[in-house]
Amino acid sequence: MPQHTDRAYESQLGKLRSCLLEMGGLVEDQIAQAVRSLTERDPVLAHATVDRDHTVNRLDVEIDELSMKLIALHQPAARDLRLITTALKITTDLERIGDLATHIAERAIELTAEPPLKTYVDIPRMAELASSMVHRSLDAFVREDIELALQVCGSDDTIDGLHDRLLEELLSFMVEDPQAISRVMRLLFISKYLERIGDHATNIAEMVIFLVKGTSIRHMDTIPREL
Known about the structure:
- The protein is built from seven helices and no strands.
- The chain is mostly helical and 227 residues long.
- The protein has a single domain (2-213), classed as Methane Monooxygenase Hydroxylase, Chain G, domain 1, CATH 1.20.58.220.
- Helix 5 packs parallel to helix 7 (181-213).
- The model has no long low-confidence stretch (mean pLDDT 90).
């Protein structure tokens, strides 16, 4: 009987991991589709991206329920408890990333109703980096890879720099062409959404370090050398 219980418990832990990765893959795709709908001025794709947000939300609820069941029925301790609490925090970040991708798609829909700007400057590059950060943070989770998690944390400065540079460029567009202000403002929102996605990916990477080491580095100015 204990063996059966252990097998069921391990199976539920495996399901927790797989649901988390499914949710992560979905939000990565949401980012890519949202930005593609922007650059290709495709409102149909943008609407489809918005509509798929309910799938992300469903997985969020499913992971929460599974995590609560694991805690209530098995009273996990030490490493397993860290895994479950980490999953709960990661799913919160993934759900917010999904929301941000939806916001990008919504701005893309609005922009298709107006004349196109000459360029989307660094937005595709920001999107590629943001999506990469999400992907690598989840890889770090699967592999329990601290070095990879730290690389994701280091990428946060890069995406912040891209956002700052894009802000300057877009503000100059507004000065040169006041009629473009509403369009430029929407691109500024999109840039901020992508910068926030980078923040959430960094949160996931920091939770990976907590999972492996039991040490929280959130809100630390410098990362401890012993990591």
